[in-house]
């Protein structure tokens, strides 16, 4: 059996570039106004996984992502950069999952693949929780190495990783299987490869094929590797009580839009006299000096 | 129904002291415990922890669950997870708090998963309150409200765990106020059974580590000059170092400025960085996202320098200067030097 590597990746709204139209007038988030992007840390994870695959003969690298049907683009993007194939976990019964329910679904999907190594980003920019990686590791009874910054060495038995901590670095080694969460300080992901882009640009999920105008039947007969697998809750044999809102111990009690309480603010222009006045005010009140 | 106690997982620094974030959580935990009429307990795992145990005498802790063993320092996930999980299974805490550090963020989710309970990361506020589930026709009394900015900081969410225990949360260093008591108490010491640890917990080995001594002390700074993405580039950001040096302050940055490479991450202020409460906070080229404001809005005085008169930061500033920060900062330096003698 070949050595399997899984990368967990998420399609996220680009919360780092929130424009003025991102909030609706009633204070709710206008999700449509935010672009869907490849979660940045997951790209670092993909790069580390590609490096690991290069060091192990006959290793296979698969992407798993959970999301709506359009999240298939994350899998294609990964294939353009070197992933062998991918699985899209998509089911309306997954909706409303918190980190615990999400990690349950992902762990069930991973179990069907029997990987030796799992890589994922430390955290996703839409939630910043950093919880899903360790929660999956616990469910699979895998050791975890979080905040990975550099792949030092890997073979079929063990992996050695440099971790980034608040005040330094730590080199750790574990036997496999293991789950690694990759930090944003790790090597950025290689860009798309032109040949791979040509090879996989027609990769589609079954759902996407149904919406295609052009007939892919002949092409997919010749190239079964272009089919991106879609799995729903039944395909990975999940327990319905563990999915979505039912499987999520955390509940959102309320959401508040941000209300700024206006302070009595003194406004100064950039004129020299104004700035001089401000500095003198501050000196006088002993805030500075 | 009697409520169980509140637990704080205490992490150790490289120097063998209890980390500030843990002491801050003990301060908050004590107040929550008083409010709920329960007791505060601590978990402390490491080696040679005697001195650290003594540090815990000022928080009215009822009991410290501790273990002193070579395998427990430096921190590794599996031995710590195994022992903390066993304490939680025996004691069934009502609430469990962890620092949102590289240790707490590694450990807490692993335990939440094993116990199948809810966990909220990076809370900026913790409160006690009730919850009425109208659909189920049920009312829950005295839940932990876990409050945090969400969805890129465009909203603030109050998260609760109605059914599962412990109610778990992580909190960043500096968010809660360090508030030790002046009076000493003598917590009970409960040794954790180390025979729980087996070879399974030993698969991850630490080969080598390099930990630097702490470099910046943003939390202790009286004056902070902080820059955002609006500084434009690394060179302009250098102006802020000059201003900070002249005023005797420290330099801070927003996440966007750190991501853009203008400044080191250890100077990041906000929900995913440090929380500060200086006498004066000068926000330069900072628009003021909720995540950033969560880390600085308790500053005594705030000056905003921004070319956008509508930047959200201006709403919480005591003084706002509208204009080009690159021109204004040198003028402040000039007038300060001129008038400060």
Describe this structure in words.
By secondary structure, chain A is an alpha/beta fold. Chain A has a single domain (4-242), classed as 3-Layer(aba) Sandwich (Rossmann fold), CATH 3.40.50. Chain A is built from 8 helices and 14 strands. In chain A, β4 (60-66), α2 and β5 form a beta-alpha-beta unit. The mean pLDDT of chain A is 92. In chain B, the strands form 3 sheets. Chain B has a 7-stranded parallel sheet, with helices on both faces. In chain B, strands 13-12-14-15-16 form a 5-stranded parallel sheet. In chain B, α3 packs across α4 and α5 (234-247) packs parallel to α8 (325-339). Chain B is built from 8 helices and 16 strands. Chain B has helices spanning 20-36, 50-55, 77-91, 104-115, 234-247, 255-259, 290-294, 325-339; strands at 6-10, 40-46, 61-68, 95-99, 119-120, 125-133, 138-150, 155-160, 167-171, 188-191, 205-211, 223-227, 250-253, 280-284, 301-306, 319-322. In chain B, β12 (223-227), α5 (234-247) and β13 form a beta-alpha-beta unit. Chain B is of the alpha/beta class and 341 residues long. Chain B folds into 2 domains: 6-202, HUPs (Rossmann fold, 3-Layer(aba) Sandwich), CATH 3.40.50; 223-339, TPP-binding domain (Rossmann fold). The interface between A and B is large, with 82 and 88 residues.
At CATH level 3, the topology of chain A is Rossmann fold
Rg of chain B, Å, rounded: 22 Å
Helix content of chain B: 25-40%
Strand content of chain A: 25-35%
Count of the domains of chain A = 1
CATH C-level label of chain A = Alpha Beta
Describe the global form of chain A.
globular
CATH architecture of the largest domain in chain B: 3-Layer(aba) Sandwich
Q: Just name the CATH architecture of chain A.
A: 3-Layer(aba) Sandwich
User: How many individual domains of chain B?
Assistant: 2
**Alpha-beta content class of chain A:** alpha/beta
- Number of helix segments of chain B? 8
